[in-house]
């Protein structure tokens, strides 16, 4: 049951922009804010020991969704992607300062005995991810404040994921093709 709840809440969080779009357009006022708030609370409860670094963004998300419902301000729902990007930026940026870098930590899950020569490369990749989080966060903030719900949904529900996928795929290609040659 726990795994099922993790999958459902993960899918909802990934689909957050689409849920907001459809909820604001097709559900009674405040309904989507309450539903999202309940899912964020559920996510917090089922992951409390697993990913401590995601507790703060979940709490802020709960505050935004609950506040949106109470204040009857649907625009507050639009700021959650900003919170996620800022959280990821802080997490990845802090790992650069404190070490090991976030990408090194992730790489060591697959290959615990990384060569020392890989560390500077992994730090650069972490820095590139920080740049993506800055860009995504700025565009998410801009779309939340100044654009239509449709543009906000298009960017935060599709384009941002395409950028993330492009960085993942591009880095993998670079690593497997060019770095393996040298």
Explain what you see.
- The chain is globular and about 55 Å long.
- By secondary structure, the chain is mainly α.
- The protein has two domains: 1-72, no CATH class; 74-181, no CATH class.
- Helices cover 81% and strands 0% of the residues.
- It is built from eight helices and no strands.
- It has helices at 2-14, 16-26, 31-47, 55-71, 80-98, 102-110, 118-146, 149-181.
- Keywords: Membrane, Transmembrane, Transmembrane helix.
- The chain crosses the membrane at residues 29-46, 53-71, 77-97, 118-142, 154-174.
- This is DNA gyrase subunit B.
In the predicted model, the low-confidence regions spanning at least 5 consecutive residues are none
Q: Main beta sheet: strand number and arrangement?
A: none
- Round the Cα radius of gyration to an integer and report it: 18 Å
Strand content: under 5%
Which structural class do you get from the secondary structure elements? mainly alpha
Number of strands: 0
Large-scale geometry? globular
Average pLDDT level: 89
Number of helices: 8
Helix content: over 70%
Topology as a string of helices (H) and strands (E):
HHHHHHHH
Number of domains: 2
List the helices and strands and how they pair.
Layout: H1 2-14, H2 16-26, H3 31-47, H4 55-71, H5 80-98, H6 102-110, H7 118-146, H8 149-181
Helix pairs in contact: 1-3, 2-3, 2-8, 3-4, 4-5, 5-7, 6-7, 7-8
Sum this structure up briefly.
The chain has 182 residues and is mainly alpha-helical.
């Amino acid at each position: 049951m726990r795994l099922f709840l993790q999958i459902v809440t993960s899918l909802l969080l990934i689909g957050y922009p689409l849920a907001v779009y459809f909820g604001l357009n097709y559900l009674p006022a405040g309904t989507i804010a309450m539903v999202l708030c309940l899912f964020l609370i559920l996510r917090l409860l089922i992951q409390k020991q697993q990913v401590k670094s995601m507790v703060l963004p979940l709490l802020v998300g709960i505050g935004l969704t609950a506040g949106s419902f109470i204040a009857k301000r649907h625009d507050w729902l639009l700021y959650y992607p900003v919170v996620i990007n800022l959280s990821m930026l802080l997490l990845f940026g802090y790992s650069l300062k404190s070490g090991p870098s976030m990408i090194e930590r992730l790489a060591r899950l697959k290959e615990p005995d990384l060569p020392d020569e890989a560390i500077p490369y992994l730090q650069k990749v972490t820095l590139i991810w920080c740049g993506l989080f800055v860009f995504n966060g700025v565009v998410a903030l801009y779309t939340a404040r100044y654009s239509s719900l449709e543009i906000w949904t298009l960017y935060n529900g599709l384009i941002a994921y395409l950028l993330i996928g492009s960085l993942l795929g591009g880095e993998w290609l670079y690593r497997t093709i060019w770095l393996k040659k040298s």
